[in-house]
Amino acid sequence: MTDKLDIILNLNGRDHSIRVEPRKTLVDAIREDCGLTGTHIGCEHGVCGACTVILDGETVRSCLMFAVQAQGKTIRTVEGLADGKTLHPLQRAFMAHHGLQCGFCTPGFLMLAANTLEQHPDIDDEELREVLSSNLCRCTGYQNVVKAVRAAADEMRNPAKNPAN
Question: Which domains does the chain have, with CATH numbers?
Answer without folding.
Answer: 5-78 (3.10.20.30), 89-160 (1.10.150.120)
